[in-house]
Amino acid sequence: MRKTLIFASLIALGAPAIAKKPPVPMLSQATISASPVSQMIAGFDSDGDAVVSQVEFDAGVARSFVDGDENKDGRITLIELSRWAAKWLGNAGALPGQYDFDRDLDDAVSRAEYEAEFAKRLAGFDMNKDGALARSELISFKPQPPIPMPPGMGMPGEAPPKPPR
C-alpha cells in the first residue's frame, strides 16, 4: 500500500511537467522585393501615373538600347553590356545578363535579341495580360516559413500572455 501511495505521488508530481504546453506564437515573415530589371522598367513610366504602358515600355527599351550601344554599331558588345548593366540595372553583374540577351552566342547583343528579351520580361511581369505594368506587377512577394517568437511575446497587437495562477 505504501509503495502504491509513493508511486501515485510521484506520478501526480510529474503530471504538470508532461501537461500540454501552449503553442509557441509564430511570426510569419515575407520578403517583398523588386528585381533590378523591374526597377529599370518602372523607370520607363514617363507620365508619372505609376503604370508603364506599352508605348512607354517600347520607348524605354529603345532608349536603353541606344544608350547601351556606345559605339553606335547596332550591337551591344559584352564590354558595353557590362557598363549598360551598371547604369540601367545598378550593377554590372545584375540580371538579365549576357546569356539572357545573347541568344546566338556571338558575344554581342543585337537590337532584335535585346527587344526579344524585354518582350519576354514584359510577358512575365504582366500578370493581368493588359499590356501595361502596374507597380504591383513589378514586385515579387515571397512568403518565408514562420519563425518562433521569443518566450513571453505574442503576435503584434496582442496582449502578452498572463502568468498561470
UniProtKB/TrEMBL annotation:
Q: Which UniProt keywords apply?
A: Signal
Disordered as annotated region, ranges: 140-165
Span of the signal peptide: 1-19
Ranges annotated as biased composition (Pro residues): 143-165
Source taxon at top rank: Bacteria
Keyword Signal among record annotations: yes
Tell me the InterPro entries matching this sequence: EF-hand-dom_pair, EF_Hand_1_Ca_BS
| Official protein name in the record | Ca2+-binding EF-hand superfamily protein
The species this protein belongs to is Sphingobium boeckii
